[in-house]
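Example for tutorial group B:
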């Protein structure tokens, strides 16, 4: 049991199961899947020029997602499969955060592992993990923020609570820049956590300031994306 707690073997098992299932599906199609091909073209343009150029197709802002994909291109070279593997990396990171979120919510390790496998081995999750669509990135931002909020509520000291609040806001602000639905983290989940801690005044004030800053970042990104779209060819 000590070994399981230290190395989180259950989480590693879930991540390995996801990876094996993805590799068995042979996700190597040299063609667009759903709407991910214009997103991949934007990523290639970012890797070549260093600028985010919207091509008139994307509805999500894709910011964090584009930079992650561009990093893969810089390291491994350009191909549709290489860019899509950046999504698989996020999908495997989500496995860890989701399983620990279940445990933090009071579910035992076995049931948390079963619940995690039920999601990550579902046909929809497996399919989206092998594309460059923004769904996995948005889900990752929401779950990461939820995990941070749970740590806030369970923190034993005000300093720890403030630190986890900043983590929840920063994680959602950065990772949620790929898909607007992730804004629910800063706009809904964090304020709910603050309301539950309203009697701890310093936590409430610091958390309110962090939430305001995160909301301002989202507003700035939204305006920037709209302006950029106006000048796209």
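The residue assignment follows.
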């Amino acid at each position: 049991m000590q070994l399981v707690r230290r190395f989180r073997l259950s989480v590693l098992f879930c991540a390995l199961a996801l990876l094996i299932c993805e590799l068995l599906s042979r996700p190597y199609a040299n063609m667009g899947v759903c709407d991910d091909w214009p997103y991949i073209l934007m990523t290639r343009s970012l890797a070549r020029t260093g600028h985010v150029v919207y091509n008139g197709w994307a509805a999500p802002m894709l910011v964090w997602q584009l930079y992650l994909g561009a990093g893969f291109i810089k390291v491994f070279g350009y191909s549709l499969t290489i860019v899509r593997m950046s999504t698989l990396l996020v999908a495997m990171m989500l496995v860890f955060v989701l399983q620990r979120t279940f445990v933090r919510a009071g579910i035992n390790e076995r049931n948390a592992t079963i619940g995690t496998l039920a999601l990550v081995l579902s046909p929809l999750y497996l399919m989206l993990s092998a594309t460059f669509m923004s769904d996995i990135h948005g889900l990752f931002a929401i779950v990461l923020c939820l995990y941070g909020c749970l740590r806030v509520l369970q923190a034993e000291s005000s300093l720890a609570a403030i630190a986890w609040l900043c983590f929840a806001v920063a994680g959602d602000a950065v990772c949620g820049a790929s898909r607007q639905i992730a804004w629910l983290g800063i706009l809904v989940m964090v304020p709910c956590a603050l309301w539950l801690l309203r009697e701890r005044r310093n936590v409430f004030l610091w958390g309110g300031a962090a939430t305001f800053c995160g909301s301002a970042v989202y507003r700035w990104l939204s305006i920037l994306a709209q302006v950029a779209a106006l000048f796209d060819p």
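The mean pLDDT is 83. Compare this with the pattern of hydrophobic and polar residues in the output above.
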